[in-house]
Amino acid sequence: MSLDKARAWMRSKGRRDIAEGRSARELEVLDRICRIALDLDGVVLHQGAKAGISGEQPDLMFGRKVESRKTPILFAGVILRPKGDEWMRRSDRPESDGVRLHLKLSEAGANRSDWADLFHEDDAVKADAEWRWLEIAERIDVSGDELLDLLEDAFFEVVGI
Question: Which of 20, 85, 18 has its CA nearest to residue 45?
Fold first, then answer.
C-alpha cells in the first residue's frame, strides 16, 4: 500500500490530507514509510483529532490490530513541519523537507539500528519513555533497508515478539 492509498483513506474518512502541499522529498519519505508499514500484517492507519496541527500529535500513525483488543496498538507515526508558526513539542521544528518518524521502540531496539545516532527521546509535552523519534533529513537515503528494519522492529515490539 502506498501513500496514494493512505491519502484515499484520509479523504474517505474525512481526515486531514497531510500530503497536500508537501515537497517532493517529504512525499518520497512518506510514500516509503507507508509502503513498508502498511505491508506488515494487520496494520491500520490512524489520525488523532489534533493531527496535522503544530506537531502536538503525529500527522499520521500506524497501528497493529490485535484480536484481543478493540483498538489497534500504535507503533509508529510521522510528523511533518507544521505550516503555521505554532510548535507544541520540546524539540526544534523539523527541517523544511524533513520527516520526523516516531517509533514505539525500546532503547535496545533503537541502538540496534544503523541510524542509532539519530534517535532522540520522546519530545511530547507529556513524554512517554517507550517512544523515540528521529528526523529523516534530506541528506539521509531512504532507499535502503534501514527504514524497513526500524518499522519492523517497532511492529514486533508492540506485542512482545
Answer: 18
Residues 6+ positions from 113 with CB-CB distance below 8 Å: 119, 146, 149, 150, 153
Cβ atoms of 159 and 66 within 8 Å: the answer is: yes
Instruction: Give residues with Cβ within 8 angstroms of 114, minimum separation 6.
Output: 146, 149
Span 126-149, pLDDT tens digits:
899 999 999 999 999 999 999 999
Coil vs helix vs strand at 147? helix
Q: Look up residue 89 and give its three cell numbers.
A: 513539542
Q: List Cα–Cα distances, 75 to 25, 104, 115, in angstroms.
A: 23, 5, 18
| Residue in this structure with the C-alpha cell 513541519, named with its chain if needed | 81
Q: Is the pTM of this model over 0.90?
A: yes
